[in-house]
Amino acid sequence: WGLGTGANDNGCNVAMMIDIARQMIKLDIKPKRTIRFALWNGEELGLYGSMAYTNKNESQLGNHIMAMSVDIGSGQITGFFTGGRPDILEATNKVIGEITELGPFTNIDIPLVGTDNFDFMMHGVGNLIGNHDPANYAPNYHAESDTYDKVDLKSLKINSAIVAAVTLGFANDLSLSLPRQSRKEIEELVKSTDLEQQMKSMMGIWDQWKEGKRGRQ
Predict the structure, then answer these.
(1) Can you give the residue ranges of the Peptidase M28 domain (predicted)?
(2) Which residues contact 160 (CB under 8 A, 6 or more apart)?
């Protein structure tokens, strides 16, 4: 973010993702499903990095079981937003059940706009957003004060274990099936939640969706 170093938004989680990938390689972990680590550019300008990925790889999205976004600072993860899809909520509850000692966790089944889960959601792909304790995130949001000293390193280490475990849970449990939603199902999600209002509030993404420039066609 232009005003500061972006330590909590989102440098801490970029570093965490890189280190999770590094540790999986170091431990020679071989998941049953492919895990793809991605750092998206252009998020603050309009979610353009993840938009480009989903558009370019649209033909492969039916093979994507889950897209997880971690973008709300370094406070401890208290659960996940599961996108307004009961099937995702059920699957996430199952995976989280294996790591209750790192909780407590409460998963919230509502769709959110504003981070890089969005284009996956609008393409019908299962998606999660980590929900964090606010810690130092909100007071320093998009501010010059978002500096390294605000990062909660203890919680960040716990979060790395949570994210790694949830990622591996989805990758290794082949009984978890989250079929890609059709355009009709996505439109119903928009109608039955406040997604339309969220989309209209930012970055012109509602117009892009209606014009067929974004999401599943």
Answers:
(1) 3-166
(2) 16, 19, 20
**What pLDDT does 110 receive?**
98
Q: CA-to-CA distance for 5 and 113, rounded, in angstroms?
A: 24
Of residues 124, 139, 143, the one with CA closest to residue 185: 124
Instruction: Scan for tokens 């964090």, then name that residue.
Output: 132
What phi, psi does 208 have (nearest 5°)?
Answer: -65, -40
CB 158 within 8 A of CB 15: no
Answer whether residue 49 shows pLDDT above 90: yes
Quick one: how far is CA 148 from the chain centroid? 22
Confidence of residue 1 (pLDDT cuts 50, 70, 90): low
**What contacts 71, CB < 8 A, 6 or more positions away?**
9, 10, 13, 43, 115, 116, 129, 130
* CB-based contacts of 206, cutoff 8 Å, min separation 6: 196, 199, 200
All domains in the chain, ordered by first residue: 7-207 (3.40.630.10)
Q: How confident is the model at residue 3 (pLDDT cuts 50, 70, 90)?
A: confident
Question: CA–CA separation, 201 vs 204, rounded Å?
Answer: 8
Compute the distance between CA of residue 31 and CA of residue 144 in angstroms, rounded to an integer: 40
